[in-house]
Amino acid sequence: MASLSTQVLATVAYCDQFQFPLTLKEIHWRLVWQPASSKSKPEQVPSLAMVRTAVESLVKHGQLARQGLYFQLASSPNWQLTRDRRTKESERKWSSALELVAQAKRIPWIQGIAVTGSLAMNNAQPDADIDFMIVTEPGRLWLTRLWVTLLAVRAGRRRSWHAEEPESWCFNLWLDSDHLAMPKTLQSVYGAYEVVQAEWVFDRAQIAARFYAANSWIKNWLPAASADLLGEKEPVPVRPPAANPILNWLEKVVFSWQFHYMKPHMTRERVGESWAFFHPRDTKKQVEAAWRRAWKDTP
User: Fold this and answer.
1) Residue 238 burial by CB count (10 A; 0-12/13-18/19+): exposed, middle or buried?
2) What is the rounded CA–CA span in Å between residue 282 and residue 195?
3) Quick one: which of 87, 55, 73 has its CA closest to 15?
């Protein structure tokens, strides 16, 4: 079992690669439990006081540096001004994100919308697009995607393939409410952070609670965050939509059409009738490799 100081160092190192220093409370909430393996579980969630003691020790030994309210790796440049600047930029981008929500929530098949990526962390850069996760009713994902795409086109916010136009809307994760669990390949520290950092901006059917319950494996990685997000009560099951043969047929036609349209552009994207992961780069591999290098290289 790695020491708490090691876990604190691993937590700060993970966010340091995004030039995102952390407050003491953020270190506690984001605490990575077992960076080498997710098989071990903490017997109890470390307290904020315990984390404070570990942070102070790491600062004393020159492994962490304090910049105002934030802590970061001592070997990195001062990220305080970077975070403050990106926080202000994120405030501006949130208006664009909520513009999409105001339109998309009128679609009856959408059950939940979450902002993900850098904006969810309030760490967005000026040239960044805005990432969304959208949850739909079962059997309506591809009809919903077509509708949302048309909304983005009309608003001039559609993101093109393999490009990141500033202020564009990037719908890179689609799930239906019967398939909320992240695949095994994403059940890692990267996937855990993606789950807990999602900012739910629309929730029609307890989707946020159901999403966390379906991804309870996050407690193997992020004990404090998962304790906060995983409620004691299971969310109430949602009644499936009434059968509609015409819409069911249209869903299959639209899925087939969209899949064949996307296929020439696809690289690492994963697509099915009930889910779609539009991540052309192996972000998980890149992020975790950079994290482990930063963590291991810290004196």
Assistant:
1) middle
2) 17
3) 73
Q: Which helix (H) or strand (E) holds 189?
A: helix 189-197
Output Rg (C-alpha) for the chain, integer angstroms: 20
Structure tokens at 27: 């270190």
Neighbours of 6 (CB within 10 A): 17
At residue 261 the predicted structure's pLDDT band, cuts being 50, 70 and 90, is: confident
Share of the chain above pLDDT 90, in %: 65
Cα–Cα separations (whole angstroms), residue 246 to 148, 225, 249, 259: 20, 43, 5, 20
CA atoms of 82 and 124, how far apart (whole Å): 10
Q: Positive or negative, the Cα torsion across 40, 226, 178, 145?
A: negative
pTM of the model: 0.89
- Provide the 8-state DSSP code for 68: T
* Nearest Cα to Cα of residue 112 among 157, 144, 69: 144
Give the whole-angstrom CA distance, residue 76 versus residue 299.
12
pLDDT digits (tens, 9 = 90+) for 222-259: 999 999 998 755 666 666 666 789 999 999 999 998 88
Domains of the chain, first to last:
4-82+287-297 (1.10.10), 90-281 (no CATH)
